[in-house]
Amino acid sequence: MGESPDNWKDAPQSGRLESGLTGRTWPVILYGALVLMPANIYLLLVAGQSLVGPISFIALILWVEAARLSRRPLTTAEAFIVYSVSAVAAGQMIFYMYAIHPAYFRISEVANSAMFSYRDASTGEMVTFAEAAPRWWAPPAEVVRQRNFLHPAWLLPIGIGMASWFFHMLADLCMGVLGYHLFVKVE
Description:
- There is one protein chain.
- α1 runs antiparallel to α2 (about 50-70).
- The chain has helices spanning about 25-45, 50-70, 75-90, 95-105, 130, 140-145, 155-185; strands spanning about 115-120, 125-130.
- The chain is mainly alpha-helical.
- It is about 55% helix and about 5% strand.
- It has one domain.
- The longest helix is centred in the C-terminal third of the chain and has 32 residues, at about 155-185.
- Keywords: Membrane, Transmembrane, Transmembrane helix.
C-alpha cells in the first residue's frame, strides 16, 4: 500500500532530518509578507474576508510549480516550510485590523442608535452598545475620531491584542514541539 520512507525521492541519505528553511524558501516568505499580506489587508477591508487560509495553498502551488519549471523541484521539507510559514508571514499584521473594527464599532451609527440599546438595571438609563463596549476592546469615541493610534488610550486595546497574538504563537510553538517529540522522536 505504501512506500517505506527509505524509498522516498527526497529522503535524506544519512537518516537525519533535513532543514526546509533554505535559500529557496526565503523568497516565498518575503513574497507572503510583502505581496500577499497587503492583498489580504485590502480584501479584509473591502469584503470583510481574510485570505489567511487559502494563502498557504496559493504560495505552495505557486512556489512548487515555479521550482518544478526551473527543473529543481522543492523537497518535502521545503514544501512544508513554504506551506506553514507563508500564512504566518502574510497574516501576522492582521491583528492590527482587529483594532480598527472595534474602533469603527465605537463610532458607528448603528452601534450608537437607540435601536440597539438596552436599559441599564442599576441606573435605569438607556445604554447603546457603543457605550457599553469595554475600554480594553476599543478606546472612547473621542479618541477614535482623532484617527491616531499614538494616543495613550490605544495602549490597552493594542496591548491586549499583542498579548493575545503572543500567547497564540507560543501555544502554536509548544504544540509543534510536542508534536515533533511525540510523532518524530518517539514513534
